[in-house]
Known about the structure:
Blueprint: E1 8-15, E2 22-30, H1 33-41, H2 49-75, E3 85-87, E4 90-95, E5 100-104, H3 107-114, E6 118-120, H4 124-128, H5 137-145, E7 152-157, E8 160-166, E9 173-179, H6 182-192, H7 201-204, H8 210-217, H9 220-223, H10 237-244, H11 251-270, E10 277-281, H12 288-297, E11 302-305, H13 316-329, H14 337-340, E12 350-352
Parallel strand pairs: 3-6, 7-10, 10-11
Antiparallel strand pairs: 1-2, 4-5, 6-12, 7-8, 8-9
The structure holds adenosine-5'-triphosphate and ligand AH0.
Adenosine-5'-triphosphate (ATP) binds at residues 3-5, 7, 156, 158-160, 180-181, 185, 196-200, 282-284, 286-287, 317.
Amino acid sequence: xxxxxxxxxxxxxxxxxxxxxxxxxxxxxxxxxxxxxxxxxxxxxxxxxxxxxxxxxxxxxxxxxxxxxxxxxxxxxxxxxxxxxxxxxxxxxxxxxxxxxxxxxxxxxxxxxxxxxxxxxxxxxxxxxxxxxxxxxxxxxxxxxxxxxxxxxxxxxxxxxxxxxxxxxxxxxxxxxxxxxxxxxxxxxxxxxxxxxxxxxxxxxxxxxxxxxxxxxxxxxxxxxxxxxxxxxxxxxxxxxxxxxxxxxxxxxxxxxxxxxxxxxxxxxxxxxxxxxxxxxxxxxxxxxxxxxxxxxxxxxxxxxxxxxxxxxxxxxxxxxxxxxxxxxxxxxxxxxxxxxxxxxxxxxxxxxx
Length: 354
Ligand SMILES: Nc1ncnc2c1ncn2[C@@H]1O[C@H](COP(=O)(O)OP(=O)(O)OP(=O)(O)O)[C@@H](O)[C@H]1O
Ligand SMILES: CC(=O)N[C@H]1[C@@H]2OC[C@@H](O2)[C@@H](O)[C@@H]1O[C@H](C)C(=O)O
């Protein structure tokens, strides 16, 4: 899995032989500066992008192969022990309204480099069936973590934040709430050259600016009804610069307000759901300021991380893509039409067999 934050490659090794899946090992490897800048550049239109995307896909696959070999060596497994790799690829465009979503990654090359079958392109079939193609993890959350008694929400705070609502006796809902870390990452990078605001310390040093927060929240995405999904296609540098034009706020206050934007836009979607426990995963679970703001926004819910469900917050997403690969191999439908808006259940993904 390489997600919208473009921070690294996460690999999970999962055993599906028992009655429920078991996460055996997981590892994160930072993306090289070169690959990261190639992938970042492809997030928005640029000249010669077809060629550049194919070259980046090759480098991405080679880096994924290295990360997989490293995890197998560390866990004491051989390639021949592994049935398949679920390869999300890197999203460089997400335009379900135009009938496509694009995750680059050279699946054939990854199969060649590892000698392991690859399952990839998980989102296209759902989009072809009229769905958003995202988020896909709610089906996995439902399969593993639904409770007969507790009203649960699982919240992934990656670059983009997405939520799964697991309410007893109700269909599972899920959608992208909007920015998770992506705008905070862009702002601290622009102001201080850092990749992210460690523990949310910079945000904690500023004051939330209510008028700026209101301005951010006026983006039409927040009021849109589900099914909905988003990405860097919407929440990018120009979005941020556009909202900050003709203002002279203190940079720390802007960071605090971006943090509040993530917390508020998440909480606004959860308040009416009377969630008993909110389980947080993704890198944002490490942002203490964001977690604190969420707790203030949702006083009636117990807020913890997915560690309480037995899965460390950093591995939930990559675990999900192993599960999605297994569903594809078994030809089990893995989308939730109540989440993505697809016309029906579909088997997701394509297989590059060895
Ligand atoms: N200690 C920390 N303090 C604050 N923020 C952190 C910390 N560790 C990680 N993050 C944030 O989490 C981000 C990475 O999160 P994650 O890996 O879940 O995103 P992703 O999977 O790439 O995104 P998505 O889920 O949207 O695809 C970093 O870019 C950073 O903003
Ligand atoms: C198009 C795309 O890559 N979407 C990602 C992104 O990252 C978070 C959010 O936006 C979510 O919709 C999705 O990823 C997760 C893993 C999903 O499909 O459930």
